[in-house]
Amino acid sequence: MKNKHILIVDDHSLFRTGMKMILTQVGEAAGISEADSIKEAFDFCESGVDVILLDIHMPGLNGIDGIKPIREKFAKVPIIVLSASSEMADMRKAKELGAAGFMNKASQAEEMVSSITRVLDGKTCFPDDLKTVDGEASRESLAGSLTPRQIEVLIYLCEGMSNKLIARELEMSENTVRVHVSAILSTLGAANRSEAILIAQREGITS
Amino acid sequence: MKNKHILIVDDHSLFRTGMKMILTQVGEAAGISEADSIKEAFDFCESGVDVILLDIHMPGLNGIDGIKPIREKFAKVPIIVLSASSEMADMRKAKELGAAGFMNKASQAEEMVSSITRVLDGKTCFPDDLKTVDGEASRESLAGSLTPRQIEVLIYLCEGMSNKLIARELEMSENTVRVHVSAILSTLGAANRSEAILIAQREGITS
DNA sequence: CTGTCTGTAGCACAAATAGACTAGAGCCAA
DNA sequence: TTGGCTCTAGTCTATTTGTGCTACAGACAG
Q1: Protein fold of A142-205
Q2: DSSP string covering B73-125, please?
């Protein structure tokens, strides 16, 4: 775990602190960064990290929907999904979307460290129960049919921001934001941005 | 906080670790114990603690269900309820059951420490919305400052409906809907209807 | 190499939204 | 009865939003 940079993405600062403690004590990681949202996580990814610990339940855009855009933009960085509830559905979804591992927040510290080590070694790490991703294939999530950039826009959209503000935030023109928003509305089947927020939330974003 | 014994009850070991870190760094507490269930918490109570930090969501006996028995057996020990979700219902329930405080797990460390200090001083500590006592008056924070008609409009607003649709639904002119929506935005401190939806959801106004 | 997809951005137009006004009708408490 | 509040409805702007186009560059697959 030496010379590795770890990014912890969780909206609970105390969890981040606890995680950081464990890692500094045991792992001698080169660096540990903390982000409290997908949005912020992107910024850290830009400056380079070796593994991401991503909480699955966060306000705004769900962690599970954050996997895809991160994977596509920073393909080399493995993601370990964290969850408080060991729901099979969450695990399977995380695996399908390209996560490298899945950890329950209630796990023992040693267990977590070994999982992270495994993933840093290029392996994957899922609970035993998850043997196969069998034919059922679970219905495609709506977020899955959005492009990475659209999801980024959706993140800000879901915070109630105007097109102008989103444009400033993502450093693109307002026109471009509109194109993305239009595409999002069409994909989600929403009549307006308010409905888009509600649909995004219903599809697992605030649950 | 000196000479005080703090008990952390949470099934997530990392959260306990993070909490413990914060407390040892800042608080010079005399002792910090960790329990991962209500059952175990009882054992620690026997040997005497000064305040209990109790997670509301735990496997087995729920935290919220654990408040009452602990209060009855160890009436002197104040309980601060911890939750990942700042649900108004949870807060209210915790208060009714005799908790001395309520903290969101996503709070900043300083905020948590000051909450604990308050409670150790014999005070209570609930989020502002709930601070005004009187049971039913507590809910009246934001929703109470809206007129009945405004709340009706807000309900449809929160379904993502346009002014035109709301007007049709409530059988009033679109102009009137606008007046109500304007008043709602102003009262809630929202910049636009999307923000109004988010605020209304957070405050539990429409639930 | 040739499409296709994605992200970017522009233009134009219609619709929706937000804010600042005025103003009347009805209700209720001081 | 008066004053205040709510609900209603209107006008008038200014801004935002949503849609339909075109266009180009980069990535990627066939």
Answers
A1: Arc Repressor Mutant, subunit A (1.10.10)
A2: HSTTS-EEEEESS--HHHHHHHHHTT-SEEEETTS-HHHHHHHHHHHHTT--B
Residues of A in contact with B194 (CB under 8 A): 157, 160-161, 193-194, 197
Per-residue model confidence as pLDDT tens digits over B10-52 = 887 778 888 887 787 766 567 889 888 777 887 887 788 899 9
Q: To the nearest whole angstrom, how far is the Cα of A108 from the nearest Cα of chain B?
A: 7
Whose CA is closest to B207, among B83, B85, B84, B88? Answer: B88
Specify the pLDDT at position A133: 37
Q: Are B127 and B91 in contact (CB under 8 A)?
A: yes
Q: Which residues of A touch B193 (CB under 8 A)?
A: 194
- How many other C-beta atoms are found inside a 10 Å radius of the C-beta of residue B143? 17
Put simply, the answer to whether A15 touches B105 (Cβ < 8 Å) is yes
- In angstroms, the Cα distances linking B193 to A150, A189, A196 are 21, 19, 13
A189: which 2 tokens? 């089947």
pLDDT for A183 beyond 70: yes
pTM, rounded to two decimals? 0.56
CATH level 3 topology of A5-120: Rossmann fold (3.40.50)
- Tracing tokens 């997908």 back to the chain, one arrives at A38
